[in-house]
Amino acid sequence: MEKIIVCVKAVPDLRSVKVDPETHTLRRDSADLLLNPHDAPAIELAMRLKERLGVEVVVLTMGPPNASSVLRRVYSLGADRLILLSDRAFAGSDTLATSKVLAKALEKLSPFSLVLMGLKSIDGETAQVPPETAVLLGIPSVTNVRNISVENGVFILERVTDYGIEELEVAPPLVVSVTTKLDYIRPPSLKRLLKEREVEVTIWNAETLRLSQEEVGLRGSPTQVASVFEKTISSKGEIWEGPPEELSERLIELLRQKGFLKS
Amino acid sequence: MLEYPLTNEERTIKDLIKEIGEKYILPKALEWDEKEIYDPLPIRALADADLFGIIVPEEYGGLGLGVRAMCIAVEWLSYYCAGVSTTYAASFLGAYPIILFGNEEQKRIYLPDIARGKKLCAFALTEPQAGSDAFAIKTQAIKNGDYYILNGVKQWITNGGIADIYVVIAMTDPTKGARGATAFIVEKGDPGFVVGKKEKKLGLRASVTTDLIFNECRIPKERVIAREGMGFMVALRTLDYARCGAGAQALGIGQFALEVSLRHARKRIQFGQPVYNFQAVSHTFAEMAMRLESARALVYQVASYIDSGAKDFSGASAMAKCYATDQAMWVCERAIQMMGGYGYMRDYPVQKLFRDAKCLQIYEGTNEIQKNVIARELAKFVKI
Question: Which residues pair with B144 in a beta bridge?
Answer without folding.
Answer: B147
